[in-house]
Amino acid sequence: MNSGATFFAGPYLDGSGVSNVTTQIGTHAYLPCKVKQLGNKSVSWVRVRDDHILTVDRMTFIADERFQSFYVESSGVWTLQIKYVQARDAGIYECQVSTEPKISARVHLHVVVPRTELIGDSDRYVKAGSAVILRCVVRGALEPPSYIIWYHGTQQIFTESRRGWKTQLDRGAPDLDGDIHSTIGSLIIESTRKKDSGNYSCSPSNSPPITVSLHSIRYTNRPTNQPNPAR
Questions:
Q1: Three-state SS for 34?
Q2: What positions does the domain Ig-like occupy (predicted)?
Q3: DSSP E strands: which ranges in 113-228?
Q4: What is the CATH number of domain 115-217?
Q5: Under DSSP, is residue 102 helix (H, G, I), strand (E, B) or coil?
Q6: Cis (ω within 30 of 0) for the bond into 101?
Q7: pLDDT of residue 1
Q8: How does strand 103-112 pair with strand 20-24?
Q9: Would you say 144 and 191 are in contact if contact means Cβ atoms under 8 Å apart?
Q10: 93, 19 Cβ separation under 8 angstroms
């Protein structure tokens, strides 16, 4: 009696596997390949764009140590691990079983690259003694940054040693464009001084830094060619 079940005499790929994996730059990616009844055959991972063999079973065949294959016997899953994913790692990877003819399955790796933007102008003019808030926003991230560090020139800002200075991190709050997945970092200076002028860099843990120039000006009459001081 035919029950409708399919039986395999040798290795076969479980068709329920993942065909698309999305990860964020700088994190680890895990590409699974589920093989049943492997027997004495080998499993290889190949990068399709250049046909480079990355791993065969648990052995790595690329100088880039970020690539590694490991096997969980109880589930029959061979996983290609890519550590500290870079944008160039995006693309198609193929899991191959050394049968004749070979059987294979492909996994498409998508790499998300967050971006850092300023909220407000890249040049800020303020009257000395007034308050200013510098803001940056991280957009397009799968995971929010674990921290945002501010620099004045090349020096990291430690607000506990600067009276009237503080930083703020708002995760998951809508930004000015209504993006609820953004993270906003703020540097708050309650009373600016002339020596506070210079370049300030917002440096998130998971996206590129961005710089804003602050100009703290002492004057009573504003020149006609100079922007209004803004908070």
A1: strand
A2: 11-108, 114-213
A3: 115-119, 123-127, 132-139, 148-152, 155-156, 165-171, 183-189, 198-204, 210-217
A4: 2.60.40.10
A5: coil
A6: yes
A7: 43
A8: parallel
A9: no
A10: no
- 3-state SS of 54-73? EEECCEECCCCCCEEEEEEC
Query: 13-70: per-residue pLDDT in tens?
Result: 887 667 999 999 999 999 999 988 888 899 999 999 999 999 999 999 999 999 999 9
| Rounded (5°) CA angle 80-82-87 | 130
Q: How far apart are the first and last CA of the chain?
A: 81
Domain definitions of the chain by residue range: 12-112, 115-217
Question: Burial of 21 by CB count in 10 Å (0-12 exposed, 13-18 middle, 19+ buried)?
Answer: middle
169, 185 contact by CB (below 8 A): yes
Residue 193 CB contacts under 8 Å (≥ 6 apart), including other chains: 128, 129, 216
Q: Which residues contact 14 (CB under 8 A, 6 or more apart)?
A: 34, 35, 36, 76
CATH 1.10.10.60 fits 12-112, yes or no: no
